Protein: Scr1 family TA system antitoxin-like transcriptional regulator
Amino acid sequence: MADGTGGTGALGCGGEPEASDSLKTFGEVVKGFRKRAGLTQEEFAPKVRYSVPTVASIEQGRRFPPADFVERAEEVLDAFGILRAAARRLSRQPGLASWFRQWARLEAEAITLWTYECRVIPGLLQTEAYARAVTESVPPVKDEEQVDRQVASRLERQELFRRRPPIAFSFIVEQALIERGTGGVEVTRELIDHLLERAAQFNVELQIMPLRQPDHAGFDGPMQILETPDNKWLGYSEGQRGGMLISDPKEVSIMLQRYARMRSQALTPEDSRSLLKRLRGAL
Structure:
């Protein structure tokens, strides 16, 4: 599910994602200011325009607080700038499997990031509802806290789209992943709208690999490739319970060749947007 990093050139297996101490601390700070203001969670939630379960998850350190939550909580609780300062120091690694964290750190500094996915919509492109549907579908059975943590971490990675200087993104996604209908019609409709919105960003290129494409360079499975600030290329490949960070120049070169071939095999960005609109209209 592309949330999981192994060591350099080696397969790394990891268990469940770990909780973040910084998230728990932030949650306690929010809780303290809320109680100081004499508000229950039920009273506080509508003031920050979030649901009571979401507020509870943030206070328990299970969910990464969205930026607008932090700003509204600051104003509602008159927190003297403390919540803003605490939010800037939150770890961006909560809910990420241990074997994915090395890649996640590299992503944060990348100047170019390319992703091909044939299993699920890439985590960077998922909506909350789609991420939740995927997380709940894959065994073993997870409790609500585990699901919240994994979904929150996946959504937090999407802050990469707002980074300055911007990252040059390229995504190649199989058409079948959209037509699968994960989560149901409403989830799929929201997902397509989200994909179209992302595809409209100046630094994002989204291509759909059509259902019928006999000549396909991606038969060996999903891949991610990035370019570092010093213009070094690295690759990442993920399996069922582990991931592999690839640094050998020859191996990375093969990945670059395959990705370049798939770019020529997939629909153009313009045709991909047209296909997405047709798929949405057919729902």
